[in-house]
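Supplementary Methods, section 5.1.

A reviewer requested that the exact input to the structure prediction be made available. We therefore reproduce it here, unchanged from the version used in the analyses.
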Amino acid sequence: MAETDEDPRTQPTPEIRIVGLNTDKTRKTLGSFTVYQVYFELSGDPPREWRDIFEREWKNLNPTQEAGIDGRFLVVHSPLKDIGMKHLPVLKKAVDATNVAYTQYAREQVMEEERRAEVWKEERDAVEDIAKSLRFE
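The structure derived from this sequence is encoded cell-by-cell as follows.
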C-alpha cells in the first residue's frame, strides 16, 4: 500500500446514508401493541458531532416523533404502517441536512486547526529569532 503526503483531516468526510431496514433488530416496543423500534441501517458509524447535528435537524423537521442513533443504526419509535410514507422521507431529509451541516462543521474544524498551527509556528519562529539574537559570552 502506497503512502501519500495528503493530510487525512482535509479529505472529504464520507456522507452517512440510510442503506436499509434491519429486520432482525426491528421489534415491538415493550408494552405496546402497535409501536415498534424500527432500526434503519446507516452506511457508517457516525461521529459524535454528526449525531448531535442529526438530533437537532430531526427535532426541527419532526419535533413530535422520537428518533435517535444507536451505533450504525437510526432508530425510530413508530407503528410500522407510518414508516414508509410518513417517516422515511423525513429521515432522509434530516440525514441530508445533517451531512451538509457536518461537512461545514468539519471544514471549520480544519480551518481552526490550521489557524492554531500557524499561530504556534509564528510563536516558535519568534522564539527562535530571539534565541539567535542573544549572546551568552
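DSSP finds two helices and five strands in the chain. These observations are discussed further in the main text.
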